[in-house]
Amino acid sequence: QSLPQQKLLTWLSVLECVEVFAEMGTARVWGEMGRWTIIVLIQLAKAILRLLLLLWYKAGIQMSPPIVPLNREQQQPLHPQDTENNSSGKDQTYVGRRSSRVVRSLQSTPSLQSRHWGSPQQREESQSRRAEEMNQPPTPLGLQETFAESLYITRPLLHLLSLGVWGQRSWKPWLLSAVLDISSLSLLSDLKDLNRRERAELRRRTILLLYYLLRSPFYDRYSEGRILLLLRLLADYVPGVGFVTRPLMDYLPAWQKIYFYNWG
User: Fold this and answer.
1) What is the pLDDT of residues 193-243, one digit of tens each?
2) Using CA atoms, how far apart are residues 191 and 140, in angstroms rounded to an integer?
3) Measured distance CA(130)–CA(106) in Å, rounded
4) Would you say 81 and 112 are in contact if contact means Cβ atoms under 8 Å apart?
5) pLDDT bucket at 103, cuts 50 / 70 / 90
6) How far apart are alpha carbons 216 and 173 in whole angstroms?
7) In the chain, domain spans
């Protein structure tokens, strides 16, 4: 990735990290008008950054999160004594004569900070496999797939626009958003030879369609009573589950009112 593309991904990641805090903070300070203003500004900025990545840098299917979290165990450097053991030519493993089980030899045991329970071959294979996945270029998108990804990127803006036109109690914004999400997924489903991260992203988007059960006005009219009833039954009749379901019953209404939790 080029340096400008990395900067765009960084800014996009920062926006996704602070969007909920910005929404709740502006709602506390400037009220409902300030809350919707910051929502529109953040979604507009995210859409511009994503469209630049898609159309200018040909980044393909957009991942979430934009930057893969750092795996500190994999990035941990070898200690000097580990490097000496690896470069000394000693065998790192011992194969049992009867069981054929591969175990680490005592001479090549690493320090406690960098120790792991797998065999060296498994560690090296997993690291090389992850590195290969990270370095895979994005799948080139045709005109249809680019249009589908553009639909997914601009869906929040169209949803906010429809909210301003028809209001929060109308079914039209909910239906419009659902149609755009389903259309984008159906158009992207024709892509072949996707890499592992892209397939995982499409699965994530498919699972997120369940959020429409928690989004107003469907939640207010149909889902709320049934979900709370199910949680209450689990808390009353399943031993031990109440420690999870009762706090969830108290948290769900507050979560549902935060835009970036259930729509972002």
Assistant:
1) 888 889 999 999 999 999 999 999 999 999 999 999 999 999 999 998 999
2) 10
3) 28
4) no
5) confident
6) 10
7) 3-65+139-216, 223-262
User: Mean pLDDT of all residues in the chain?
Assistant: 85
Q: Which two tokens stand for residue 126?
A: 């997993």
What average pLDDT does the segment 115-123 reach?
60
Asked if 18 and 25 touch (Cβ cutoff 8 Å), the reply is no
218 contacts 174 by C-beta, under 8 angstroms: yes
The closest alpha carbon to 35, from 190, 197, 257, 207, belongs to: 257
Report the candidate in 178, 136, 195 with the shortest Cα–Cα distance to residue 263.
178
> Are 87 and 101 within 8 A, CB to CB?
no
Long-range contacts for 4-7 (Cβ within 8 Å, ≥24 apart)? Answer: 4/57, 5/53, 5/57, 5/59
Integer Cα distance of 209 and 256 in angstroms: 15
Q: Is 4 helix (H, G, I), strand (E, B) or coil?
A: helix
